[in-house]
């Protein structure tokens, strides 16, 4: 897998616009599968705080809603967007719902899971708010478990922004 391969993926924004991740080339990325009705939903606050603190230094948080874990993201893209804006003032880029496991897994998540396996070498995403840190040159550096608080990633993020 080439480090720059991540930039070839097309994704759909929460507003339905197709874009290539190439738009974020040269930025450090924190890619997160999110959900509105999860025990970890409060992490939107921490993710937004990281984005606000580091966006001018080159960090972009990318949120990918997913309804594969206990039906915790049942809403439409508009409902998700409104929920995030009203409850957490989310300003970081949000995308259309994706599958992160199974036969319908989005190609981006196929790539992320192969590049950085989880506990015991498994590829499957275990739950909402699994986080992947990607370097400025497109290398998938690390996978963080859902229970890892966004604030705990600051030193790893800062290392990528130097």
Describe how the helices and strands are arranged:
Blueprint: E1 10-12, E2 18-20, E3 28-34, H1 43-54, E4 59-65, H2 77-88, H3 107-115, E5 131-134, E6 140-144, H4 154-161
Please name the defining characteristics of this protein.
162 residues, alpha+beta, Glutaredoxin, 4-stranded mixed β-sheet, 25% helix, globular
Give the termini separation: 24 Å
CATH architecture identity: 3-Layer(aba) Sandwich
What is the CATH topology assignment? Glutaredoxin
Number of beta-strand segments:
6
Total number of domains = 1
Could you estimate the helical fraction of the residues in percent?
25-40%
Proportion of residues in extended strands:
15-25%
Structural class: alpha+beta
Regions with little confidence, pLDDT below 50 for 5+ residues? none
Largest sheet: 4 strands, mixed
pLDDT averaged over residues: 94
Global geometry: globular
Number of helices: 4
CATH class term: Alpha Beta
CATH superfamily: Glutaredoxin
Order of helices and strands: EEEHEHHEEH
Using the CA coordinates, give the radius of gyration.
14 Å
**Spatial strand arrangement across the major sheet:** 4-3-5-6
């Amino acid at each position: 897998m080439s480090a720059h391969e991540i930039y070839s993926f097309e994704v759909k924004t929460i507003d339905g616009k197709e874009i290539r991740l190439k738009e974020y080339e040269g930025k450090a990325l924190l890619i997160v599968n999110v959900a509105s009705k999860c025990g970890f939903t409060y992490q939107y606050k921490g993710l937004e705080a990281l984005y606000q603190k580091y966006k001018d230094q080159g960090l972009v948080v990318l949120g990918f809603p997913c309804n594969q874990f206990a039906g915790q993201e049942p809403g439409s893209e508009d409902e998700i967007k409104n929920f995030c804006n009203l409850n957490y003032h989310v300003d970081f880029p949000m995308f259309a719902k994706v599958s992160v496991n199974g036969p319908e897994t989005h190609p981006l998540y196929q790539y992320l899971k192969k590049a950085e396996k989880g506990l015991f070498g498994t590829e499957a995403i275990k739950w909402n708010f699994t986080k992947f840190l990607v370097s400025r040159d497109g290398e998938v550096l690390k996978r963080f478990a859902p229970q890892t608080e966004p604030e705990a990633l600051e030193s790893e993020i800062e290392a990528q922004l130097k």
